[in-house]
Amino acid sequence: MHLLKKSSCLLVLIQVLQLLGLSRDLAQTSQANSVQRPTSSSTGQTQRSGTGKSSRLNAQIAQILSEIDARRIESTIRKLVSFGTRNTLSEQDNPNRGIGAARDWLFGEFQKVAMQSDGRMTVAKQTFEQPQSARIPQPTILTNIVATLRGTQPESVSRVYVVSGHYDSMCRSAIDAKCDAPGANDDASGTAVVLEMARVMAKYNFDATIIFMAVPGEEQGLLGATYFAEQAKKANMDIEAMFTNDIVGNSLGGNGVRDRSTVRVFSEGVPSNESQAEATTRRSVGGENDSVSRQLARFIKETSESYVPTMKVWMIYRRDRYGRGGDHQPFLERGYAAVRFTEPNEDYRHQHQNVRIENGIQYGDLPEFVDFGYVANVARVNAASLATLALAPARPKNVTMTTGLSNDTELKWEANKEPDLAGYEVVWRDTTSAVWTNSEAVGKVLSFTMKGMSKDNYFFGVRAVDRDGNRSPVTYPRPAPRNQPTNRPSSN
Ligand SMILES: [Zn+2]
To answer: Residue 87's closest CA among 17, 25, 178, 186?
Structure first.
């Protein structure tokens, strides 16, 4: 009787938590507990936990999220729509209509933002001539608006995080420069997310550097993003992560589903720039689900769901939507970690359409189909992740796993150089688990052995933690070179 009472109380409690949207944490906890460390382990003095999900939230990040304002996002989107069209081939010198007007307005807005940054933010127009191509009938000038918020920690200032949206738009035809192309959702919404984050975050200090960017030419073949990524590669820029926000404004799908609390994050499994040798290694040891971009997606999910519990990050294990692409691709092709943010259910009546009413149905990418409160929440998901990335240490470098035959798993890595580094965590999960389920704080060491846990049976990774509890994304280890011939694994 007593037991029965207890369990019905628990049921009620779970129902209440579900109502409050907290049931995910319970699910996470029970999942985390399902991976058992063997009891014979001799690493007794280290602390064992789940992924440490909501253990420490940073007050500065919570403050940033509270300052993100749906009304300012709405006014940005309406302003961008007011230029009539932002087609990349449209007028460049008309102050009221066309992509030139949008470019100059955005440049001015980012400059206003920079004035709040104590000189840490600089705004540049990155202008280039795009040669003739499939969707560029004649050579055309394109301009990326690039706002760089310099990091304040000397050891981290060259570490860069990029967040972007594309400010060009299109109607049905990508080369129609005259038609109205309001592009409220595609992609004034993403551009507004970037501008709003810049407005709020420019007032705060971050260890690493953040680039807030608005690019044209997405609809013409990812041209603005490609140019930026190519220049970054040539300059050896250390871009540790890139987010593109594209179509993040509509919470009502063409399938009739209203979902205001989910955002999709697309990440590729097998890297776009994987070499033949890396493919051979991957086939031998696994890792098709552990690219840097996949680790970034897991990081975004774990981080942002602790700060913004009303929003669910729906990880999609795919580079982009089926057969489609976005501005993260040129970064992926150059070896940078990159993901795409997009609303959960799209409505194709309001994308790439000429504005018209047909059979009583309104077509066109109009502001009336954008949910500004939802866009603000997507901005918060972005900002929680971006701020954590730029405050946390870099993800550990040169993480390797010893390859000898053993039921223990030995990991080694290179020392991080940040002065506020607190130490490292080894994480692991079952091979079929979507996210890291367990972690172990191992201190300020450069190697660690998981006693009694075979690398055959789990996936392992390492992340860095600073003194404020900000955690880096996880680095997935490469197999260490085999230098002990007596211990070489055989094919048996
Ligand atoms: Zn788009």
So the answer is: 178
Torsion sign over Cα 4, 8, 13, 15: positive
Distance CA 352, CA 20 (A): 38
What is the residue whose two structure tokens read 């507004």?
192
- The residues, any chain, with a CB within 8 Å of residue 108's CB and separated by 6 or more, are none
The C-alpha atoms of residue 121 and residue 104 are separated, in whole angstroms, by 18
Distance 99 CA to ligand 1 centre (A): 15
Provide the pLDDT for residue 368: 98
Residue 467 is given by DSSP the state: T
Tell me how far the alpha carbon of residue 381 lies from the centroid of ligand 1, in angstroms.
19
Q: What are phi and psi of 409, to 5 degrees?
A: -120, 120
Ligand 1: distance of its center to the CA of 166 in Å? 7
Contact 182, 365 (CB under 8 A): yes
CA of 294 to the centre of ligand 1 (A): 22
Q: How far apart are the CA of 378 and the centre of ligand 1, in A?
A: 16
Compute, in angstroms, the gap from residue 80 CA to the centroid of ligand 1: 14
| E runs forming strands in 131-196 | 140-149, 159-166
Token code pair at residue 57: 């939230």
Q: What angle do CA 136, 139, 140 make, to 5 degrees?
A: 80
Structure tokens, 298 = 């897991």
Q: Which of 43-47, 89-93, 316-320, 457-461 has the lowest mean pLDDT?
A: 43-47
| DSSP structure class, residue 252 | B
Residue showing tokens 């109009």: 366
β-strands 338-342, 361-363: how paired?
unpaired
How far apart (Å, rounded) are the C-alpha atoms in residues 305 and 438?
Answer: 17
Distance 192 CA to ligand 1 centre (A): 13
The gap from C-alpha 336 to its chain's centroid, in whole angstroms, comes to 12
For residues 135-160, average pLDDT: 98
Between the CA of 180 and the centroid of ligand 1 the distance, in Å, is 16
CA of residue 352 to ligand 1 center, whole Å: 9
Q: Indicate the pTM of the whole model.
A: 0.89
Q: Spell out the alpha helix ranges (H) of 44-182.
A: 59-67, 70-81, 99-114
Separation of CA 357 and ligand 1 centre (Å): 22
| pLDDT tens-digit series, residues 177-223 | 999 999 999 999 999 999 999 999 999 999 999 999 999 999 999 99
Task: Note the maximum CA span of the chain.
Answer: 81
State the amino acid at position 240 in one-letter form.
Answer: E
> What are the backbone angles phi and psi of residue 60, rounded to the nearest 5°?
-60, -40
